[in-house]
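Appendix B. One record, verbatim.
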Amino acid sequence: MIPALRRGYPDLFAVISLPARLRVYALEYELRALASVRKRHNNDQVALQAITQRIHDTLDDTFPAFT
């Protein structure tokens, strides 16, 4: 998947702090998902739990990073 991302989004990989940038993109995705569940999916509890856990994982120090 990373080679496809690198080809499709070269600017993403041209930054000094790639892990920080990927974290921001992950959070943006999850926050949009959270808004969607709340507005369009009747606050589905299973979906809310999954999204909330992914947000916590993204904010955790162990978030995947490239070194």
